[in-house]
Hints:
Elements: H1 9-17, H2 22-34, H3 36-54, H4 65-75, H5 91-94, E1 107-108, E2 113-117, E3 127-133, E4 142-144, E5 148-154, E6 156-159, E7 162-165, E8 169-172, E9 177-178, E10 181-182, E11 188-194, E12 198-200, H6 203-212
Antiparallel strand pairs: 1-2, 2-3, 3-11, 4-9, 4-12, 5-8, 5-11, 6-7, 6-10
Helix pairs in contact: 1-3, 2-3
Amino acid sequence: xxxxxxxxxxxxxxxxxxxxxxxxxxxxxxxxxxxxxxxxxxxxxxxxxxxxxxxxxxxxxxxxxxxxxxxxxxxxxxxxxxxxxxxxxxxxxxxxxxxxxxxxxxxxxxxxxxxxxxxxxxxxxxxxxxxxxxxxxxxxxxxxxxxxxxxxxxxxxxxxxxxxxxxxxxxxxxxxxxxxxxxxxxxxxxxxxxxxxxxxxxxxxxxxxxxxxx
Length: 214
């Protein structure tokens, strides 16, 4: 697999620091599972972060702090997350898709476009979803109200930035305006994290946007 598009370095650094919201962290970790170059980049970033922490002055801990921490970890009720053995998606997102991509219940979101929301924790900020664009169909031209991460899981699409295929990730902010068009031959399925609704150029699409759920 040849991956041409990667997350911005600032996004990778935020992932390494643990400061990304859950929807974005899921998309980035799924990309990293598919991309050796970004795995190596995150390893380097982790080493830098570790060195910076090691250089910080030591802080005194209260008596019994370590014992209380280990006791809390032992008492934590963490249920195992079922993952389908036959899943064809990378492990970071497989936990959200116990029946795999083919078991998704899609919701109509415009001609040739469908979405499926994925569950996130109650405290997560942003939206994690799957987006399916039928082969050869267009997503209406739009910009973004905030940051959008889009990872291709199956198929491909093209826009003014190039052709995004399996494993590629588009890391866009509110300054980007584009119109993805799914490549012919196969539906394009993407894993998407957003923190605001899309801003469509077409007045008609903006009017119908509440029905489309985008």
